From TrEMBL:
Source species of the chain: Mycena venus
Name of the protein in question: F-box domain-containing protein
Pfam family, one: F-box-like_2
Upper lineage: Eukaryota, Fungi, Dikarya, Basidiomycota, Agaricomycotina
InterPro entries referenced in this protein's UniProt entry, alphabetically: F-box_dom (IPR001810), LRR_dom_sf (IPR032675)
Domain F-box: 11-77
Length: 313
């Protein structure tokens, strides 16, 4: 029997992207979008994120169906350059119509190259307060004067929706503005008894602490275990020396710990990888948590941090 080639080349039931169920469209976007892991020491691929952002923007402009599906993903994270915010505040107010404010769940603020102006910091805080579903705030590259101005601007603010905060440790002065923090990342060295730890006590719900850098001894772990025994996830970016091996017995005080991230340095001055893995697994296995245990060990290289060990059990 002969086959009509024209029938095969022009199928009668062709399906376009907009014919797919909404649930499937959402899953396609979720699988291919870039994501920011607040605990990962690896720098984000900004170029890849920009490409994906442009694709979502184009899709959202194509038709009403894709606009409804793509807009929440397009605006769930807002990257804010303070240089542009400072010089083009009127443009921001025009572009960011209130109808999209409810989509924004995460704001990443870069202070790089920004001139210090106190009013600009107050404008930033006013903008953040207009976002009803803001859950994640990251502030990077502030200089010392900016830190002072930010602390002043946040002094009268309260952002109860924010649960994850990623800021330099010197910005601990803004902590009182965030009463419901559960995840905190402060990439800088912290010593026992420092003002940072006193400020952290404002976060009684804290369960995730990232990029902790110990200085000198393991006393910091003792203080954290006393104030935050409920921690479930802890990331320590300081390589552990043999004379600080007691840090593992101190970590046992975190009875609900289920995820531990450590750094290894291939040097006789620090614990070997085998010892590090063995001691860290003992800590996690001794936890009473019902969650799956996760152990990650990183190492620094010329190209940046590399994950050299990962185990889930």
């Amino acid at each position: 029997m002969d086959t009509d080639v024209s029938v095969l080349s022009t199928p009668q039931n062709a399906c376009s992207l907009t014919d797919l169920p909404t649930e499937l469209l959402v899953q396609i976007i979720v699988l291919h979008r870039s994501s920011f892991d607040i605990l990962s020491p690896v720098l984000e691929d900004i170029a890849q994120r920009q490409v994906q952002h442009e694709v979502l923007h184009a899709l959202s402009q194509s038709c009403s169906r894709l606009r409804a599906v793509c807009l929440p993903f397009l605006w769930e994270r807002f990257d804010l350059s303070m240089v542009k915010f400072q010089t083009r505040l009127a443009d921001y107010k025009t572009a960011l119509v209130p109808t999209i404010f409810s989509y924004i769940e995460s704001v990443h603020v870069s202070m790089r190259g920004c001139r210090t102006q106190l009013q600009t910091m107050f404008n930033l805080v006013d903008f953040l307060r207009t976002l009803p579903n803001l859950a994640v705030l990251r502030i990077s590259w502030p200089n010392f004067r900016m830190i002072q101005d930010l602390c002043s601007a946040f002094s009268e603010a309260c952002l109860p929706s924010v649960t994850s905060l990623y800021v330099p440790v010197l910005l601990h002065g803004i902590f009182p503005a965030f009463p419901n923090i559960t995840t905190l990342v402060c990439p800088a060295a912290i010593i026992a008894g420092s003002p940072v730890l006193a400020r952290m006590k404002l976060f009684p719900r804290l369960t995730v602490l990232g990029e902790l850098r110990m200085v000198g001894s393991a006393d910091l772990i003792s203080e954290l275990a006393r104030d935050f025994p409920q921690l479930r996830t802890l990331s320590i970016t300081t390589s552990i020396a043999p004379d600080c091996e007691n840090v593992f017995s101190l970590l046992n005080a975190f009875a609900d710990l289920s995820e531990l991230c450590l750094f290894h340095e291939d040097s006789p001055d620090y614990l070997s990888l085998d010892v590090l893995v063995s001691r860290a697994k003992d800590v996690l296995l001794g936890s009473r948590s019902l969650d799956r245990r996760v152990l990650r060990i990183w190492s620094n290289s010329l190209s940046g941090p590399q994950l050299i060990y990962e185990e889930r059990f």
